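ok so for the tutorial part 2 we go from a plain amino acid sequence to predicted C-alpha cells. step 1 is just haveing the sequence, like this:
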Amino acid sequence: MRTERNIYSFLRKNHLTIVSLLLALFSLHLALTGKREFERGYLLKELFSYTLAPAGRVALGAENAVKDVWSGYIALMGVKDDNAALTKTVLALRDENNRLKEEIRLNERLRALVDYKDSLPYYTTGAAIIGFNMERWTRTIVIDKGAESGMMRDRAVIAPQGIVGRTLDVQGRTSRVLLATDLRSNIDVIVERTRVKGVVEGNGTDGLILKYVRQVDDVQVGDRIMTSGLSGVFPKGLIAGEVVKIEKGGDNFFKHIEVRPSVDIGKIEEVLVLREDTFHN
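step 2 — the prediction. this is what the C-alpha cells look like for a chain of 281 residues:
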C-alpha cells in the first residue's frame, strides 16, 4: 500500500516530464521512419530489442541448462547399463574361475589317488563318495560302485592316508561302507614301533580305541598303528591311525588307548576298494 502511494506521488510530481519524454520519443520515431534508411518501426524495434534481450538470454540459458541436464541423464543411464554389463561379466568370470579351481583340485586328488593305486601290490577299484550317514550308532558312507563294478561285501576300502572301512551292503550300482570309526568295526592291528598286537574298534564318533594291549606292553603317544593283515579283510601295513592318549584300564590289566584315525572322512571324496583275492596275509 505504501509502495503504491509512492508511485502515485512520483507520477503526479513528474507527469509533465514524463509526457514530454513520451512526445519526444514519438516525434523522433516519426522523423526516423520518414527516412528511407530507416524502416518503419525501427525505433520501437530497437527499444523492444533492448528491453527484451536480457529475458531472451535468460530463456536461452534455461534451455541450454535443460539440454545439459538431459544429456547428463542420458549419459548416466548409459553408465548404469555399462556397469550392469560389467557386473554380469565379472560374476560370470568369477563362476568360471571357481569352476576351474574345482577342476584343478579334482585333478590333484585323482592324480594322488592314481599314484597311490599304482604303488600298491594289489588291484583296486576307484570310487567316489556320494553319501554320508554319521549318526551316533551308525557311521557309514555310500560309494558310486556296486555289484555291476565287481564290488563284494567285506572288501577293504582305503585312501592314500590310510584305512577308511569295509563294504557292508552291495547293491547294483552303489555300496554302503562301514567306517572304521563305527561301533561295529574292529580291525586287527600292530604298533609299528614295537610290533605289539591289538584290535582297533570305532568309538562311534570320530575316533578309534586300541584294545587288548597289556599294561606291560610298550606303547607311547605318537606311535603309529598299522593293520596286521590277520583279519583277512585288510592287507598288512596300512595306516590305521596314531596314538593320542594312554590311560590305565579299569581292569588293571589292559591299557585304555585312544587312537586318532589317519583318514579324516570329512575331507576325502574318493576312495579305493580292494578286489577279491588280490592279497595274501
